Amino acid sequence: MTFNLLDLLTTKVGISGMVQVFVSNRVVLPEGVMPAAITVESGRITAVTSPDEVPESADVHSFGDLVLMPGLVDIHVHVNEPGRSEWEGFETATRAAAAGGITTLVDMPLNCLPETTTVTALEIKRAAARGKCHVDWAAWGGLTDDNQEHLLSLARAGVRGYKCFLVDPGIEGLTRLSETGLERAAPALARMGLPLLVHAELPGPLEAAAATVAGADWRQYETYLRSRPDEAEINAIRLLIRLCREHRFRVHIVHLATGLALQELDAARRDGLPITVETCPHYLHFAAEDIPSSATLLKCAPPIRSRGNREELWNGLRRGIIDLIATDHSPCPPAMKRLQDGDFRTAWGGIASLSLAASIIWTAMKAREIPLSELSRWMAGSPAVVAGLSERKGSLAVGMDADFAVFDPEASFRVTTEILHYRHPVSPYLGEHLFGVVRQTFLRGDKVYGEEGFIGSPKGVEVKLGM
């Protein structure tokens, strides 16, 4: 690709502080991957030029052939603090994020106490995060049948949107949103323009499936898979498409696991409906046929499905039906995974992957010959757009925060507990051989992670933007 300086904005946006220039032969820009120099002042990108236009007085960071790409944006993270910091907390979650090249995460409103369903709860979360974060963060609010009077105040207080469940999540403070409650909230959501993130499973198909696994062996993954059939997702997505068509509110399907919904999602999007979709590393990496008995580290909801289904999800990404990849980092104390008895029925459902996500996805992309630029689109640019953060996060352009991941796509490693960095070093990826190593991570121009470890005191802040 020809490097055309006329296509790049180079207007200065800051004049104070040390001028830094970040140079690489492979920079992931909106225009493609090319040699470039990124000038940074006061934590923001002020110029994008060719490498031979570096100011003599600048503090130059040269990375050679290592890839300089936007800091990744993970919009589906369960930090669990306040209230359950023994599961995870801001300090450990953001540390793992920094090690994985993630410079912004958006925290889910459940598994913390109190759940983020009111402004008061949001302020308690903010107090808990203060001074602990190695990367920047933002918050989703929760939506239930019982907190709809709080939606506008939560929006004004800075949440990026709302998370809801169409099936019982087993959380006392963030209960299932009924179809009636969803219809009641839809007009307000349309007026505010914030996305509704939906765990898209309906209870009817799950209740019907329960009869088919009565008396089955719950140490077998097949039993768990049968208990959460594709129809639970498909029917929920059909409901959301219908209501979105009627009310035109923004819908974001979280952790899509079934490829059988892609055709209907594609048709809805072609009709102009404001629907976006994410999937997760575990759905793109693992396959049901390969999950052994009692491997409860791989329990999540919706479940990991077949190899053929996995390839359909990859096709959905390549065709643009699935917009982005988010981790759904959902850790818990190891005892809750029931590792000793291997019971999929009682084990906590959730997979932690903050520090590994980029490598997991790049390994699979490399095998499928998908270009590196798509990693940045799926894990930085598109997530920032969905969360309303794209005016500051997700791309390397003038005016953006100087958030960078320095990535070595040719390097490989074996997953060990020492590189996980989150609260409890357990993972279904242990022992896996992955490609792609995050060498350094920069937050607003400051190095926060490198091969020497974590650098300095936590510098992350909440990203606050207007509605």
Automatic annotation (TrEMBL):
Cofactor(s) needed for function: Zn(2+)
GO BP terms in the entry: allantoin catabolic process; purine nucleobase catabolic process
A GO molecular function held by the record: cobalt ion binding
GO cellular component: cytoplasm
Enzyme Commission no: 3.5.2.5
First-level EC class: hydrolase
Domain Amidohydrolase-related: 67-414
Metabolic or biological pathway: Nitrogen metabolism; (S)-allantoin degradation; allantoate from (S)-allantoin: step 1/1
Pfam families on file: Amidohydro_1 (PF01979)
Keywords recorded for this protein, A-Z: Hydrolase, Metal-binding, Zinc
Function: Catalyzes the reversible cyclization of carbamoyl aspartate to dihydroorotate.
Family designation: Belongs to the metallo-dependent hydrolases superfamily. DHOase family. Class I DHOase subfamily.
Quaternary state and interactors: Homotetramer.
Protein name: allantoinase
